[in-house]
Design goal:
Helix content is about 50%, strand content about 10%. With about 500 residues, it is an alpha/beta fold. Strands 4-6-7-8-5-9 form a 6-stranded mixed β-sheet, with helices on both faces.
């Protein structure tokens, strides 16, 4: 009778008596369940001299099995070959692996596994499906594949058009155009999105290529693991023999001298072998002052592209794209408000829309511009530092061309009294100050003056009045002016 897993262990339909003995020894050393889970239909065992030779499909499975079953392999070798017997784990890429199994057994190293498309060499591309080799490393631990971003979901604009053009050139001509390609910019401007889009499109248009996408944190974790498990050759074989290497968050390598050296040797070999390198970071290579000069000069030898926060027109298109599945939840005015308000990055836009969508789900009322201002304004007040009355005074003075002495004076001229009323209203709204404290600050007035000013401004808002003052706010509604003043305060408090 054929032994379970015998086909996977010898690559044939039957086992010789010696091979059956090897299977039994390994099964006895590591347990029936572990044997069936890790070795059936995916490995090959043989004896070469005094060495028990275990072949597996790829370096990462080899590293993981070595870490988990080192003592078991030693016992199996001793039981078959005697006390002097040793074992050896080798990589044989002609073997196939069952991708889902690797994910179910999560390694101890807490790192994001690199997304890979395994190499199918030019000479053997037709002989086996190389994508199976590293397929588990492109799968998350949630029972499904990681969904990588694509160019179709990327909104291009003046803020990122050079980077997007270069990325598309890399997809069309990997290893030939802009090598390396270095993308940099503040957080949330689309660097990771663009790396994932390159990864997805190369997988689709060049399935024969070996592609790896990972963060520098993951690279560091795999490197340190290879040192602790003495599997550096397998590590280097995996990362240096790739066609496309995509590395995110290069700033993580700050002050990591040993990892920087390994990364330098890796990217040099990738480029010299004709492979493509794409890197992202939060700053220009010249500003990576805690990196080796050899690394930063390598980064600058290709094309360096800055990605800026989206301009208002691009933000409008981003908001429209994200809001499309919930178009019945928002008025167009509320979406325009989000586009005007969220200026820092795309994540801020996503968070604002999620907040408004949650409000809609709770109230079942369509979100208008006034709702959006109220909801997001309250969120801002909860997240920023305490605003002081002096901050309000400064913003009012800047907006209306007044001095602090004017606001605190006894003047009742409209050009002074109206801004003073707005200052009292805004101070009451965004600070923790009492009526009396606000009145005392603005010229020693009592609390009833502040109450009256608050009611007066609220009446302007309810009547949709416009300000008719010689300032940048002239002709705008009082509600819009107050919103602009609050945004300026927010920029001071952030």
């Amino acid at each position: 009778m054929k032994q379970p897993g015998s086909h996977g262990l010898n690559g044939q339909d039957t086992c010789t008596p010696d091979q059956t003995r090897l299977c039994a020894a390994l099964r006895g050393a590591i347990g029936e369940q572990n044997y069936n889970h890790w070795f059936a239909d995916r490995s090959r065992i043989a004896i070469q001299g005094e060495v028990l030779r275990i072949s597996v499909p790829n370096p990462f499975i080899s590293n993981w099995l070595l870490k988990r079953f080192r003592s078991g392999f030693s016992r199996a070798a001793a039981s078959v070959l005697g006390p002097s017997g040793t074992f050896e784990l080798v990589v044989d890429e002609t073997l196939k692996s069952r991708s889902a199994d690797v994910v179910r057994e999560k390694p101890d190293v807490q790192a994001v596994a690199p997304a890979t498309v395994s190499r199918r060499t030019r000479s053997s591309a037709g002989s086996h499906d190389g994508a199976d080799d590293a397929q588990p490393l492109a799968v998350r631990n949630y029972g499904g594949r990681r969904r990588f971003q694509t160019f179709s979901s990327l909104v291009a604009g003046d803020c990122n058009d050079l980077a997007v053009m270069a990325a598309r050139q890399v997809v069309d001509h990997p290893g030939q155009r802009f090598n390396p390609l270095y993308l940099y910019g503040p957080t949330g401007v689309g660097k990771t999105h663009l790396l994932e889009a390159i990864y997805s499109d190369i997988r689709s248009s060049h399935p024969e290529l070996n592609v790896i996408y990972l963060t520098t944190e993951s690279f560091t974790n795999y490197f340190t693991q290879s040192l602790s498990t003495r599997t550096s050759p397998s590590f280097r074989q995996r990362f240096r023999n790739v066609d496309v290497l995509l590395v995110d968050n290069i700033e993580f390598l700050d002050n990591k001298r040993a990892t920087q050296e390994e990364f330098l040797f890796t990217i040099v070999q990738v480029i010299e072998n004709g492979g493509q390198l794409v890197i992202s970071g939060d700053r220009h290579p010249r500003m990576l002052q805690k990196h080796r000069e050899e690394l930063t000069t390598r980064f600058m030898s290709g094309l360096v592209c800055r990605m800026d926060p989206p301009d208002e027109e691009t933000r409008r298109r981003i908001v429209a794209a994200y809001a499309l599945p919930f178009k019945d939840c928002f008025s167009q005015e509320s979406l325009d408000y989000v586009a005007r308000r969220c200026k820092k990055n795309v994540r801020e836009i996503q968070g604002a829309l999620n907040c408004l969508q949650g409000h809609f789900a709770l109230t079942r009322k369509r979100v208008t511009a006034s709702h959006a201002r109220e909801i997001l304004g309250e969120l801002d007040r909860e997240c920023r530092r305490l605003v002081r009355i002096s901050d309000v005074e400064r913003v009012i003075c800047d907006a209306f061309g007044l001095s602090a002495a004017d606001l605190r004076s006894k003047s009742r001229r409209r050009a002074v009294s109206h801004p003073r009323a707005l200052a009292m209203y805004v101070a009451r709204k965004v600070t923790r100050s009492a009526y009396r404290e606000i009145g005392m600050y603005f010229g020693g007035r009592d609390h009833s003056t502040v109450v009256a000013a608050e009611r007066r401004v609220q009446a302007w808002i309810d009547d949709r009045s416009n300000l008719d003052l010689p300032s940048s706010c002239r002709g705008k509604s009082v509600e819009d002016v107050i919103h602009e003043l609050e945004e300026r305060l927010l920029s001071l408090a952030s």
